[in-house]
Design brief:
By secondary structure, the protein is α+β, with helices and mostly antiparallel strands. 42% of the residues lie in helices and 11% in strands. It has a four-stranded antiparallel β-sheet, with helices on both faces.
Length: 233
């Protein structure tokens, strides 16, 4: 699948994917996972990246995060990635690359798709058959969002506040999101957008971003443009 040029836009959430090289594990044990999260938190603070949600699987990381400036996402991902590779290689007596090249990302239309992306991300361990429910996987932001833990790295996106007026209301509504039946088509579409770099967004949203930021997001017609007929004499 062809990957689009990566687009980073200030104040717009991004769904981010990092994979291990050749799908090899990037986390061997819990010490690896704790260290990665510590450095991810530090990189976010240092470079202006607000992390809304995450999940760590054996061979990949997924995030939902909003950059405070256009280069915040790249700088934060580079900082934590390089630091972690050096530490991981030294700790496990290996050398060479760990990640599958650069990270992948998809712009997310927050009003329509942020909570769906967050559900997709945090339910990954369940779909993979690792646990029975998302709260059973300790290496994601889900327990924070349902009030079972406090994660200092998480900065909730304003879309989360639409779930209720109090923390209890929001946590209860968030649990119900995961009780709803979600079509495989929705999961497949979100994953396709993430892997290919297409925005997880409506065409109207993409047109607004194209206009406001001078980006090209929507596909253009294939072939030579039509000639404009000459003006009548």
């Amino acid at each position: 699948m062809a990957r689009r040029p990566r687009q980073a836009v200030t104040a717009i959430p991004h769904h981010v994917l990092l994979r291990g090289h050749n799908r090899q594990p990037v986390f061997v044990d819990d010490a690896d996972r704790r260290q990665y999260l510590t450095w991810l938190h530090e990189a976010g603070l240092a470079h202006g990246l607000s992390v809304h949600a995450y999940v760590l699987m054996d061979a990949q990381v997924q995030l939902l995060a909003t950059p405070d400036r256009d280069d915040a996402l790249s700088l934060a991902m580079q900082a934590v990635g390089r630091r972690y590779v050096r530490w991981f290689n030294q700790r496990h007596g290996r050398s060479g690359t760990l990640w599958e090249g650069r990270f992948r990302s998809s712009l997310v239309e927050a009003d329509r798709w942020l909570l769906a992306c967050q559900r997709h991300l945090e339910s990954g361990p369940v779909r993979a058959g690792r646990v029975g429910g998302p709260a059973d996987w300790p290496w994601s932001s889900h327990r924070h969002h349902v009030g079972l833990a406090v994660d200092p790295m998480i900065r909730p996106h304003p879309a989360l506040w639409t779930l209720g007026n109090t923390p209890f209301e929001r946590e209860s509504a968030y649990r119900r999101l995961f009780d709803e039946s979600v079509s495989q088509a929705e999961h497949d579409w979100i994953q396709d957008c993430l892997v290919s770099g297409k925005p997880t967004a409506s065409a109207d949203f993409q047109r607004r971003i194209e206009t406001s930021h001078g980006l090209r997001l929507l596909p253009r017609p294939v072939g030579r443009p039509r000639r404009t007929p000459p003006a009548a004499p």
